[in-house]
Amino acid sequence: TLATGGIPPPADLPAADPPVFALALAARNRNDEVKLSGALHKIVEEDPSLAFEARGETHELLIKGQGEMHLKVAVDKLAGRYNVAVETVAPRVAYRETIQAGAQQHARYKRQTGGHGQFADIKIEIKPLPRGSGFRFVDRIVGGVVPRNFIPAVEMGVLDYLKEGPLGQPVVDLEVTLFDGQYHSVDSSEMSFKMAARIAMSEAMPKCKPVLLEPILKVTVFGPSESTPRLQRLISGRRGQLLGYDARPGWPGWDEVSALMPEAEIADMIVEIRSVTQGVGSFRPEFDHLQELVGRTADRIVEETKKRAAA
Prior knowledge:
13 strands, four-stranded antiparallel beta sheet, Alpha-Beta Plaits, alpha+beta, 311 residues, Ribosomal Protein S5, domain 2, 3 domains, five-stranded antiparallel beta sheet
């Protein structure tokens, strides 16, 4: 029931809004993990406004719906109907990191045991790339100082390191050039060159001024026009950058407010949106870009990542 003065949605409603509230799930009993996946499939079949996702970036299983109570009902159903008890937490944000400066690095991997040893010697150069460029590996070896069959192992070692950089996040938007090295005709191997690459990266990356990147979403918030000022304040209070607002096409008396917002700020935003729109507001997010994050918020995220890794 709407409060006096509320403007209801049009009777001819479009397709249901996509899920806007998510929780990360973990089975309390590890033996129930396979059963959990099957139960989620059945729950989503029964209620198409629910969705679930295995997010590889954060190694989490997410359930998504229209709000906190919607997901509470689904979680209760998992336990009551399918006998799968779960723990729920807020989903983690898939942060990235990049570099702000370049560096050159020499690294040698040498081990001597009984029989053949291990030997690899490389020199690399690291450079930052424009946002969105991803990763680029450049081979500038001349004269066979590093044999061709070992060069892919160097790239593999670099990529292995980039899964988790100095700040604990996957590293993006950089170029790594292999420009010199040495090998031993007996002791060199793919493994030794892969190890040398990891050593070079671990020693060079802290010199490259690593910085955290957070995902920024393009968000469109929908609500009755009378609630637009409150929605704008809500967005600004969550580190959002307002882009403007306009009448919502086909919805008389409604507006849509556009903004850029950090993903970290929208996890429970639907609760507040509904609070200021008499329960009828909604929003739609989509990924826009990665943006540098510095200061206390970045420091807190780095510390939390370290604690999680040490647990």
